[in-house]
Design a protein that fits this description.
single chain; 98 residues; globular
């Protein structure tokens, strides 16, 4: 079961997936670059990251969202590098307010 649903997201996104990026067509979002403005990609990414980290609380998922939207450097775009940046910087933002 996914950690977050669309209604849990705190930021505004575009939800206009266009084939072949549409996750209902491909089964997964773009496997190379994360478009941090497309809701379906961000939501799927957060839920996959949460699953690999065994997150149990929605607050952890919303923290992932906040870090992506507010702190992730613009030159980090691949799913692999975003995951690595989040893991490397997770504790740095423990006290961040939002």
């Amino acid at each position: 079961m996914p950690l977050l649903s669309k209604s849990d997201l705190k930021y505004t996104y575009s939800w206009t997936a266009i084939a072949p990026d549409d996750p209902q067509v491909t089964g997964t979002p773009d496997s190379v670059l994360l478009n941090r403005n497309e809701g379906y990609e961000v939501l799927a990414f957060i839920n996959r990251f949460a699953e690999t980290r065994e997150f149990k609380y929605k607050a952890s998922g919303t923290k992932v969202e906040r870090l992506i939207k507010e702190h992730l450097p613009g030159d980090i775009r691949s799913h692999k590098n975003v995951s690595k940046w989040l893991a490397d910087n997770w504790k740095k933002y423990d006290k961040a307010k939002k």
